[in-house]
Design a protein that fits this description.
By secondary structure, the protein is α+β, with helices and mostly antiparallel strands. It has helices at 42-64, 87-92, 156-169; strands at 10-12, 22-29, 69-73, 78-86, 99-107, 110-112, 122-134, 144-153, 174-175, 181-197. 9% of the residues are buried.
Amino acid sequence: MGNTIDLSNWEFDSGYEDEQRLVKATIQLLYPEIEPFLTLKPKKRIKAIDNDHIEKVNKLLSLTGIHDYELVGTDKRPRGITTTLSLKSLREIDWSNIVSGISIHSITHANKLPDKSEPVEKFYCVRMTVVIYVEGIASKKHDAEERFVLVKAKSFDEAYEKAELQGKNYGDPYINPYGRLVKWQIESFDDCFDTDITSFEDLESGEVYSKLKKIKSKSIKVWNGKD
């Protein structure tokens, strides 16, 4: 990540130098590229990756001269450190090939500015269960549809609210070919997925919903890590 640290949301007291400002920060370690570990067995891979992180912690401590810190993760499997150091040190240290990100918790002689940015309106995919009711038909199990609806909103809560409002507007009964009234009714709102799509104009392809589940694969039972 080089030496780029975003301090745009901090206002500094002009009466102090950077070496006088103390920064409490969590420094996340950079995860290594996987290629050097591909020839190793899984258990040895994990050990090698853990050793890589331990080496990065030691290099980080050597560069900064930090002695007082709290590990993120464990001694055997560190993932970063939380510590306090001067803003001058934070700016000057070359974090390349060691650090993936820095989260700043506080800075002395500085104030964090309130976030005035407006939430971005984007598309959310709301998954719902719609039950089909047929007039005069008694059944323990009704036909149901798993429906996915794209809703433009600024948050998950707003997406649910808009989906519920839309659902009230399209639920008018109709008469089927057998003369019975049919009603489609939303039974539940089951999930909401942030698509990160802000406009259809720029969309070539995109993921609108994702859910993990287990299946029986027809092609691969045990993947060898190569093919």
